[in-house]
Each structure stands twice: as C-alpha cells, then as structure tokens.
Amino acid sequence: MAYPGYGGEFGNFNIQIPGAGPDVILGGFSGYPAYSDPYSSADDPMYAYFSAVAGQDGEVDAEELQRCLTQSGISGTYSPFSLETCRIMIAMLDRDYTGKMGFNEFKELWAALNAWKQNFMTVDQDRSGTIEHHELREAIALMGYRLSPQTLTTIVQRYSKNGRIFFDDYVACCVKLRALTDFFRKRDHLRQGFVNFVYDDFLQGTMAI
Q1: Is residue 14 part of a domain?
Q2: What is the pLDDT of residues 71-90, one digit of tens each?
Q3: Most CB atoms closer than 10 Å: which of 66, 72, 166, 196?
Q4: How many domains in the chain?
Q5: Residue 88 domain boundaries
Q6: What's the pLDDT score for residue 37?
Q7: What is the DSSP pairing of strand 25-28 with strand 34-35?
Q8: Is residue 22 part of a domain?
Q9: Does residue 32 form part of some domain?
Q10: Does any domain span residue 189?
Q11: 3 pLDDT exceeds 70?
C-alpha cells in the first residue's frame, strides 16, 4: 500500500540552507526528507548551530537540541520548541537508540521542520500564529495522510488548547505521525495496512515517542 505522509500533495519542497549558496538545496518530502551534502561537516553552514551545543561525542541530547533550535531561529516568530517536543524529535530519528542526535540526523530534522513550518504557514491563512481544528485537518491532509474522522478528532483533542493549535504542538503532532507511521510501515512487510505486534515490541516503539 502507499503509506500516508510519504510524499502526498504537499510532498515536494526545496529548502535553502541558511548561509549557503543558491545551489545548495535540501529536498525531499515531509515523510522522509532527503538532502544533498557536498560539504564536510566543518564546511556546512548548519554545523555552527550544531557544534555550538554538541557534546564531546558530537551528538546532542534533548536539552542541547532545544538550545540549538532556539539559537538557530528556525521557529521564527513562533514560541521556541518545548523540551518535550525536542525529546520526541530525537526519538523520531534515534536509529541507534542512544537517546541523542548526530549531525546527519540534525540535518534531516532541519529539513522536516522547514517543511512542516511551510505547511503550517500555508494553512494559517489569518496569520494568527495558531491554527484551528479544520486547519489542522487540512495540514495533515496536505502531508499526504488519509485518516478517519475519528482519528482526526482524537488528534485535534490531543494537540489543541482552547480550540487553537500552537506551532510547537503542531510540530509535536507531525513528529508523532511520522515516527509512528514509520514504526508501523517497517513491520507491514506486505504493505497491506495491518500487522501483528508482539506486546513488548509495541511498547518499545510507542513509549519512545
């Protein structure tokens, strides 16, 4: 089956790396952004943000990622990302289960965040800095997800505050949708849309997010 969130209508985007020339582009789709990296890490204009907070192991934990993203200004005029959102960002890309994020994973996250931010701005037509229930549903559809009304209602109830969805909560929603879809997709070998879970496997995959 074609999995939602892996290249829907909003799937194609190009992202300019800050400080890089016009030929250096991050591109892909909101489910799995891809990037072209002709630089070594030291030459990469994004590396300054990362290395300023990374530990001696060259990786960042959730608190360091929060500082890195805040200093980078990627959230723009929106509130900085919460520590909990940064934790699940790391979990989404933590393929070696270290609880930390290396520079390559950071670049992948940066691409996803830019795509999600572009999506948020697209549906926030009144430029209020928040989106309403119907706009969140539109944003999810733009990313290629095809969810039931019941699932959409559950998501809206989970991430809205007083009827509004703030950018940090919206990004947390996007992270979980991507991470859980990937968790499911990797186990659905026949692409039929259903799998059998071992209880412990289910807990490992969902409790981390």
Answers
A1: no
A2: 888 888 899 999 999 999 99
A3: 66
A4: 1
A5: 46-208
A6: 47
A7: antiparallel
A8: no
A9: no
A10: yes
A11: no
Beta pairing class for 13-16 and 130-131: unpaired
Structure tokens at 72: 């980078």
Question: What's the rounded Cα separation, in Å, for the pair 47 and 185?
Answer: 31
Q: List pLDDT tens digits, range 5-33.
A: 443 333 333 333 344 333 333 333 334 34
What pLDDT was estimated at residue 35? 42
Q: What does the pLDDT look like over 105-162, one tens digit per residue?
A: 999 999 999 999 999 999 998 888 899 999 999 999 989 898 999 999 999 999 999 8
* CA 142 – CA 116 distance, rounded (Å): 10
Strands (E), 4-147: 13-16, 25-28, 34-35, 130-131
Question: Kind of pairing, strands 13-16 and 165-166?
Answer: unpaired
Provide the token pair at 127: 């430029």
Query: Which conformational region is residue 160 in: left (phi greater than 0), alpha (psi within -120 to 50 degrees), or beta?
Result: beta
Tell me the CATH number at 53: 1.10.238.10
Decide: 31 and 184 in contact? Cβ < 8 Å: no
Counting Cα atoms < 13 Å in the Cβ hemisphere of 30 gives 30
- DSSP class of residue 49 equals H
Q: What is the pTM of this model?
A: 0.80
Tokens of 105: 């994973």
